[in-house]
Amino acid sequence: MRYLQPALLALALTFSTGVFAHAVVTHNSLKLKPVPVNQASQVELTFNSKVELDLSEVFLVSAGDKMQVIPATPGAKAGTVLLDLPALEPGEYAIKLKIFAADGHLSEDLLRFFVKQPK
Ligand SMILES: [Cu+2]
Known about the structure:
The chain is mainly beta. The protein has one helix spanning 6-17, and strands spanning 25-28, 41-47, 51-62, 66-69, 72-74, 80-85, 91-101, 106-115. The structure holds copper (II) ion. Copper (II) ion is lined by residues 20-22, 101, 103, 105.
C-alpha cells in the first residue's frame, strides 16, 4: 500500500468496507502490570478495530522527549498488539502511537507510564 496517499487510501477503504470508527485503545496492560525495572518486557494493547501494523508506528518516549521506534506485532486475539519494550531504568516514559485502522484512518495516542523500583 502507498504510504504517500493516505487520503486516497482512506477513501478507497471507506467505500469498500463501509464506515468504521478509528482504532482506539480500549485496554492496555500498563494499568494492570507495571513495567519491570531494567528488564525487557511486553505491553499488550487492545483496539476497538483491526489495525494495519505495516502502516502504523509506535515509539517509546523517554526523558528529554527522546523517541525511539519499538517493535509492534499482532497479538493472539483479534485487535490486540504486542509492543516490545527494552530494559528501562526507573523514570517517566510514554508510548506514542500512530495507528492506522482497517478503514485507513490514522489516530494518535500517548500512553504515559512510570517505571518504579520495587519497595
Ligand atoms: Cu476511522
